[in-house]
Structure formats: structure tokens, C-alpha cells
What does this fold into?
Amino acid sequence: MSGKQKAQRGTLKKVLAYLKPYRMLVALSVLLSAVTVALTLYVPVLIGRAIDGILGPGQVDFGRILPLLVRIGVIVAATAAVQWIVNTLNNHVAFQVVRDVRDRAFRHLQVLPLSYLDTQPVGGVVSRVIADVDQFADGLLLGFSQLFTGAVTILGTLGFMVAIRPGIAALVVLLTPLSFVVARFIATHSYDFFRSQSEARGEQTAYIDEMLGNQKVVKAFVREEENARRFDEINGRLAKCSLKAIFYSSLTNPCTRFVNNVVYAAVALSGALVCIATAGAAVPFTVGSLSALLSYANQYTKPFNEISGVVTELQNALACADRIFSLIGQPAQQPDDPDARVLTKAEGRVELSDVAFAYTPDKPLIEKLNLSVRPGQRIAIVGPTGCGKTTLINLLMRFYDVDEGGISVEGTDIRHITRRSLRANYGMVLQETWLKAGTVRDNLKMGKPGATDEEMIAAAKSAHAHSFIKRLPQGYDTVIGEDGGQLSQGQKQLLCIARIMLCLPPMLILDEATSSIDTRTEIRIQKAFDTMMRGRTTFIVAHRLSTIREADVILVMRDGHIVEQGNHEALLARDGFYAKLYNSQFAA
Amino acid sequence: MKKLFVYLKEYRRESVLGPLFKLLEAGFELIVPLVVAAIIDRGIRGQDQGYVIRMCLVLVALGLVGLLCSVTAQYFAAKASVGFVTKLRSALYRHIQGFSYQTLDRAGTSTLITRMTSDMNQVQTGLNLALRLLLRSPFVVFGAMIMAFTIDARAALWFAAAIPALSLVVFGIMLVSIPLYRKVQGLLDRVLGATRENLTGVRVLRAFGKEDAETEDFRQKNEAHTAMQKYVGRISALMNPVTYVIINLAILFLIRTGALRVEAGIIGQGAVVALYNYMSQILVELIKLANLIINITKSVACGKRIQSVMEIPAGEETAQGLPAGDPRFRVQLIHAGLRYTEGAEEALTDVSLSVLPGETVGVIGGTGSGKSTLVNLIPRFYEATEGRVLVDGKDVRAWDAPALRQRIGVVPQKAVLFKGTVRDNLRWGNAEATDGEIMAAVRVAQAEDVIASKGGLDAEIEQAGRNLSGGQRQRLTIARALVKKPEILILDDSSSALDFATDAALRRALREMEERPTVFIVSQRTSSIRHADQIVVLDDGRAVGVGRHEELLESCQVYREIYESQFKKEAAQA
It folds into this structure.
């Protein structure tokens, strides 16, 4: 067994584990679909018998036909009822499994370490939870039920045909593969056309994406004509490939239908000849039997076509299932100790001793970092862009765990404090402002759901956010879309500050974001920060000179390392990297 | 939709021949049961083997002719649908090329891209299917009924009863379930949104310890989606069983009636078999038709969306009979104002400005104060909703838009480059520029080292300029605008990624250019504009000060605040 097959078998096992709670339903569904198939196939036989009762004028055996018809009616009604139950059962199981897998995946997302999530594009994870799960359900669960009914139908049809007339059944079995050969032939030959179509389509989409995405630049340079010309060139190529791909692939249906017609004619011929030959015999081959055989011959190839469709689906579905299970299988973060301390109202004593950390083992980032913070102190982290300032935030909040050494709060190593209580003691305002889709009120109360409106408004006022919130269409009830929607970057930042202002945790982590805010708004935000920092231990990624100068300790970072540490005067006196940075950036 | 069909005109022949051949094929298919009936009634009852063999050859022949017709039909349908969509796509692309900035904003880039790509593909599929099958299925259904009538009118009455009943069930279930499926999709979108949001906000959510609340919220959304799915599933699961019952009941009645007619000697046994076969054919075709209609409905919706884009007026018509202004000024704004959308706040209010050829104008102000808006009025990217904007004494609305823009070099805020060589990119504004001209522009833009580090003008730039840093991209976009040799150069906050020294060198080089353009510099940094001939200070869309640096320091409080927030305070305290 190849490695791939082994992996597929592993995936299947996991699928079965999700099916386990529904195993009774699955068993019932399998049983009932077998019943449906059997009944469905039995009906043409009965109809054939009825037809045999209609030989000619004066030769109609009503005494035989009428009870038969009643029987058929009962069977048909039963079949339909069972069929509906099977469909509903299959849907039920498939949808429940989808729900279970999604719930499981989402719960797992909550405990996946950020070291994993940070390396995954958001769209990729979302498509695993949504699109892949759907595909997997469609292909694997519904696919299996189709596969099963298909297989039973084929076997059943074959059985009935053999029972009616083995010789003709053999003829059908021999001729049917022709239709696959034809379909196969067309598929392999149209594959190249499809590939060149998708290449041309990809090229065109990329062009559209690039040019329409920057249509304003196109207009600014009066490139409309030139671009339209290039577009038409790609468009023309695409048209050629598309025509071929569509035409050749659409040959499949007519061609297989023709093969089926030939099979049908062969059955009609042999059946009719046998009818004639056995006309006087003790057990004649009747017209009714011929009619049943013809109706089987008509249906016989259908499940084959369905199954070949399902098999490709299944491959795809397995791949999707594999992706979602690999997400669920990612190791979760180290769970909290059972006896971990629940940190309440910290005073703000933070100790970093011999901390070492690296995102990837071959690139050491923080090494031997020591820092002792007393309650109420301000720690400024400075350095050029991309020097790894946010790494420190990641460690303090325990988004990442240190590799060596330890961080302690109030004398307890943070690995022995529950994550939730540790994080609840920090108020965090990041440069990347993130707001939840919902009302302004929902967002502000995120950290303190029980807050009154008065408290909320007071917080908004001290964050200088009240005045603009008031001017929003519905004030505090204005719904803001995912990621802040219509708000400006500065306004979003103010909301993030107000959010922290409301719950006011004992320690703060602030990223003084200035890149997208004009200097005057920035001054207002600065005031809000100042109010908040009073009496609180604060870690601040600092961009503004005044913040840096007023800090108790300045950590100077460069290429991921803390190169210098001390207060403003001491660092200037040292005339090292800080002094250089300071002189180049601020003394202009 | 009707307007789109103009593009089908050229394929009129194919659009008629496609369905026609398909109908021919269906016609041959309808003959099959009659042949089988003949085999039974004449061949078997008459013990005529030769007749049976001949009739079976007829069956094969019918299949073969059907195959030929069908292949021909597929070809015409493919040709018409591909050709139609190709024309439509080209027309839509050209139409979008004409859109003004305002129209582009309103339509939205991602929407336009979807219209050009997936909507077009869906229309192509839909048209192809429609040409092939839309007429075929009803033809077979009614054809089967008519054939039944030719066999025996009494028995055929069951067809007249079964067809409406089947249609009612098939289309009824469809009508009920389609809007429900839309609801399912909407609920799925909410599940998707919850997942997405949880990931983008993972740090904040964990900082606030919201994991459990989020899980509960997700569980509810997930459950709502599943419940709706099951509900719709139960309804659409009715389709097969109910149609199965109807068709078989019809067959039972058919056999009963058939038996009576045979007894009376009006029809033969084979005819009953033929009637039975016709009835079986109907069901298959009706279900095909239902699926086809779902597909076509989707395509029609896509087509309508495409048409609605086609119907958007471009919004860049050249106006006649506007009064001329003072031709001495290169650029003049007279009480100009702009509202981006009707009823919205003014983004720019009552700005007046006169600029002589060769002057440098600085535009400064906070985020959202209207700086970009102001310079965007000059190339008529946006049309002033109040007042007037003139270039060389002529109202910009009276200029032919391409001719106006050919004279203006724009360096946009977002430094965008395109896939292709550096040379291709720099020649965007002037396809005939020589390498010498290009390099001269590159030198002014302080981008010589960028070109050198990439390995010359033939170096490939990846899509969106991904293989360049922000500062490198920015300098190349400046060079690109200069290759045009513009009379007016607009730098829209385009030195933000440059350090002070490079920014200063760039401004010096611009001043020293031989044919010195009129330059507009938009910036948040006072250092970038302090030496300009005129500085416009914007606050909330109003020009709160116009003048030189020293004058404004005296007279304009906003300017002084900006200046101090960047320089004086920190410099003094340092």
C-alpha cells in the first residue's frame, strides 16, 4: 500500500469517527436504500407481467392484470415513502457531521497557539472551515450514498436481467463497457483543451485583476486604448481555447447516448428473436419480459456514469477532509496547569529573567533579556521598524511562550498563571486596530460586558471618542462592519483606546501607532494615553520623543535584539545606538 | 438582459441552428418507441424475423443520425455562447475603461472584477445550456404526448393528466426551495464571517478572554445554518419520491386503459409498450428541465448584473460652451468644491487658487482634510460639484479628458507598478520614450540605484511590484510620471516612504529640470513643502490659509500647529 493510500485510509478512519454518533441512522439508511433499489427494480417486472396479460383482442386477462396493478400501486407508494426517508436520513447525517466538524474546528481554533495561526493566511483557514467542509460533506457523505445505491442498482439490475434471460444479460454486460471507453477517450482528449482554457482564463483574470484594481492609474496615464487592445488579444486566445474545450467535452453525452442506443437495439433484436423462437415453447419468452429488459437496458448505464462522477468527487473530497483534519490535528497550546494561579488585580510587578526566544530555532531573536519592572513604571520599547518590538508584547501576553528563562508577574511565573487571568490584567492597544462587526456599544463593552451606559460614555469621553461617536448615524448603536468599515484609522484607534478605558486593567501594553494618523489627531490620542497610563505599569512601543523621554526604562531594540537598556539620560551619555537613533530621527 | 443580446447578433445563425439540430435529434428519439411497438406487433406477433432485424437496424440508424445532429448542435451552441461572451467581455472592459473615478468608486473594483470574470463564465455556461436544452426538454415532453395521441387518444389522456401534475410538483418544489437555499447561503455567510473575524481579531479576542463567548456565538450560527439546511433538505427530498409516484400511477392507469383498448381490438400489445415507454421518457426530461432552469436562472441573474454595469454612464462627457478663463494661469481653481456623493458632506469647500507655469504648490493638512481631493480635480479625476477648475484657461470639463491627462503627470499615493519590465512600466505615459529620456527621468526621481540594483531597464517587475520595496516603488512611479514630460506634475503624498535626504534631493532635482513643470506637492510633512511658491493649508476641506511658509507661520494657526507638532517642539526640547 502506498503512502498516499495509507494517508487516505487514515483520513477515512477520522471520517468514520465523526459518523459514529449517527451509526444507527447510517445503518438504517443503508438498509432502506437497498430496499428502495430492490423495489424500484421489481416494478418493471410486474409491469411486464401485466403487459403479458394483454395479448390481443379477446385475449386480455383482466383477472390477472387488475390485482397486479393494485400490487404495483402499493409497491410504488411504499418505495416512494422509503426513498423520502432515505434522502432525509442522508441529509440529516451529512448536515450534522458538517456541523460537528465545524464546531470542533472552531473550538480548536480557540486553543491553537498563535505560533501556528500567525503562519497561516486567514483566508486559508476560513476556506478549510467553510469550503473544505462543504466539499467533504458533499463528496464523501452524499457521494458514499450515491456510490452505494449505484452499486446496488447495478447488481440488482444485473440480477433481474439474468433471472429474465441470462443470454441477453450477458450481451448487455459485454456491450456496456463501450460507453466508458468512449467517455474515457473524449475526457483524455479534451483534457489538453481544458488545460489551455484554464491557463488562458487565469492569464485573463490576472490581467483584469491587475488593471481594474488600478484603473485610476490606468486613466491617469491615458492607457485605456492600449489596455483594451491587450485585453482583446488575451480575450481572443481565450475564446479559441474555450470553444475547443466546450465543444469536445460536450461530445461525451451524445456519444455515450449513441452507445446506449446500440445496446438498446441489440437487446430489442435478441429479445424479439428469442420471443419468436420460443413462441410455441412451454416457457415462452414473453413481450412483457422483453419490455422489462428494455427498460433495464435503458437504465443500466446510468448508475455507471454517476459512479464515475462520484469517484472523482471522492478523491477531491478526501483531499478536503484531509485539509480540515490536519487543521484539527494541529497541536493545541499547552493547557493551563490544573493548579494555576488566578491573577486578580495585579499591582504591576513584572520580572523578566534570562529570557530567550526565537520564532524559528535557527534565528535567535531575544537572548538573555533581564528586566525588572516595579508597579507603575513605564517601559518604552524603541528601535527601527521591523526590529521585533511586537515580539516582546507577544511574550508578555503569553501569545508565545519563552524558550528559556521566565517572565513572572507578582512573583509567579506566568506559565503558572491562567492565561485568561494574566491577559485580563493587561489592557492592550495595538497598532492594528481591530473591531468586531457589531455596534459601537458592543465593541466598547467587549472587555466589560456588564458596564452601564454611563460608564461607557465616560470612557469614550476620556478617550476623546465621544464627540465623533455622537455624530455617527445611530450614535453608540451604529453598526460598524467587520474591521471598522467606514471609520477612519484614527477613529478606530480612539475606539480601541475607549475599549480599554472602560475596563481599565492594572497593566497596559500600548503600541503608539502614528503612521496613518495626522499629527493633530495624534496629539489628542496622546492625551488619552497619558490619562490612562497614570499609576499603571505600562509597556509602550514608543514613536514619540516625549513618551520615550518620560519612560523609566527604555529598551532599545535592533534586529530583534535588545541592544541597550536604561533611561534617556543614561543612554544618551552612553553615546551608542540609542544616541545615534535619537540624533538621526528627532534632532532634524 | 435584452441589451446584451445585441452581442449575439453576429451568431444569429448558430443560435438558430443549434437548437434546431437538437430538436431534430429529439425527434429521432421520439420515433424509437414506435419502432419497438412495430417490432412487437408485427415482428413478434407475425413471427417475422426479417422484419425484426430490419427494424433493429432502423433503431441503430436513428441513433446514428441522432448522434450527428447532436454533435452539430453542440458545435453551434459552443460557438455561439463562446463568441457571445467574448464580445460581451470585450465590450464591458472597454465600457469600464471609460468610467470616471467617481463611477469607479461607486461601482467598486471587486464588483467590476467579478462581473468581468465569474459572471461572464456563468453567462457562457447558461447560454450554452439554453441553446442546447431549453427547447429540447419541452419538445420531448410534448412530443411524447403527441406521439401518444397518435397511438391512441383515449390512453393518451393520461399523459394530459400526468404532465401538469408532474410540472406542478417539479416546479413547485423548485419555487419553494430556491429562496430557502438563498437563506441557507446567507446563514453560511454568517458562519464564515464569524470564523474570519475570530482569526483576524485573535489577539484582541484572546486578550479579552473571549474564547468561550466566541465559541458559543459560533455554535449558534452554525446550528441555525444546519437547521435551515435540514429544513430545505426535507422539502427538496420530496421531489424524487413524489414524481416517482405520479409517473407510476399514470403508467398503471395507462395499462388499464390500454388493456381495455386492446381487448376491444383498437390497439395492439406493442402499442401499450410504446405508451409505457413514452411515459417513462417524460419524467427524465422534466427533471432535466428543472435543473436547467435553475442553471439558467443563475445565468440570467449574472447577465442582469453585467447589464447593470453596462448601463452605468461613464460620467466623463466633454461639455460645450463653458466660459474661458485667464490663459496666463496654468491651473486655476475658482470657488471649487466637491461632494463625493450627493447629499454627503463636502469633501472640499470653496477653494480658490491661481498657479503660474513653473510654480510649485504645496498642499498640507490632516488626514481627511481634502488634500488628495484638491489635486484630483486638476486632471478631472473628479469633477468639481461647486465652482470651476481651469487648466491653461480652459475649463477641465471642456477639455477632451485624454488630452488633458496627457499633459499632467500624476504620482499617486499608492505606488503601483505593473507586471512587466522596468522599461515597460516607465513608458506607460509615453510609449515612444528613448532609453536616454527614461534615464533622465530616473535621475530626477533619484531612482538610479533602484534600476542599477535590479539590473537595468530590462529587469522584470512582478505583479503589483512585489519584488521592490515601498521606497523603490515610489521613486519608480515618480520617474514614470516624469517620462511623460508633463506640464503639470502632481505628487500626491508620494515621498512618504523616502527619507529626508532623498526627499530633499528629489525636490532640488525637480527645481533644476530644464522644462520645469508646474508642481503640486501633497504632504503631511512641512519639510516637504516649506520652500514652495504657494502653500495651501486645508482643514476639514476648507482652505484655511494660502501663502508662503513664513506668511503662514504668522497668519495661520492650523499651519503653525502642524509645523510645531513636527518640528519646533521636539527640536527645541531635544
DSSP finds 20 helices and twelve strands in chain B. Chain B touches chain A through 150 residues (CB under 8 Å).
